[in-house]
Amino acid sequence: MDFLQVEAIELNGQAETAVDAIWLAGDLLVQVKKVKPTYVEAMIKNFTDIGPYIVIGPGIAIPHARPEDGAVIPGLSMFRLSTPVSFGHASNDPVSLVCALAGVDETSHLMMLKQISQVLSNKDKLNIIKTTNDVEEVVRLFRQ
Amino acid sequence: MMKKILAVCGLGQGTSLILRMNIEQVLNELGVTADVEHVDVSSASGMTSDLIVTSAELAQSLEGHETEIAIVNNYFDLDEIRQALQNRI
């Protein structure tokens, strides 16, 4: 099963603020029917309440909410910013890649996070994600 | 007794799980066996463990906790995790 679909990838994203960027990354999940709009609202609330801890690598933010906030199908979206924005993180700002996660249950969540972690901790793969203009190429990285 | 390590994030669901997987990978490479759990920051403040691993942001909200805290800023960087764990486990 593909957690990431081409329709959930935006490689020329524009956002003014962190909240805008999370909103737009979340909206990609809504468009592919993986989450309900309430889930996106919850992701933003988590960010504004708990803070920029979701920026877990240099330039990489992983916004997410709880399954009961409106997740329907496990998956992720990828919103790449043409101009990075500040999320208020002390060491990993500014953010250029926002991967919104929709976790439905523990098993699918674990598989998805393992895949994401394997891709994003690989410097070559991360470099492709940061530079490619081909959404298919991004999807393929998550298939390997 | 097996050491217990807590990987902590805001919700205890997404980012702490990535951190936990990478901690387990590093421990595996170091040949160390430990019980690694992923939890949210409010649960972590009420739990006992041998080491807490989290980001600088969340470490602030755990200030005053008696457990030693190792700070990791890049959860994808296995070298940084290794450095944070070494001498503490």
TrEMBL record, chain A:
GO terms for biological process: phosphoenolpyruvate-dependent sugar phosphotransferase system. It comes from the Bacteria. Its main location: cytoplasm. Pfam families: PTS_EIIA_2. Residues 2-144 form the PTS EIIA type-2 domain. GO terms for cellular component: cytoplasm. Keywords: Cytoplasm, Kinase, Phosphotransferase system, Transferase, Transport. InterPro entries: Ascorbate-PTS_EIIA_comp, PTrfase/Anion_transptr, PTS_EIIA_type-2_dom. GO terms for molecular function: kinase activity. It is found in: Cytoplasm. PANTHER family: ASCORBATE-SPECIFIC PTS SYSTEM EIIA COMPONENT (PTHR36203), PTS SYSTEM, EIIA COMPONENT (PTHR36203:SF5). This is PTS transporter subunit EIIA.
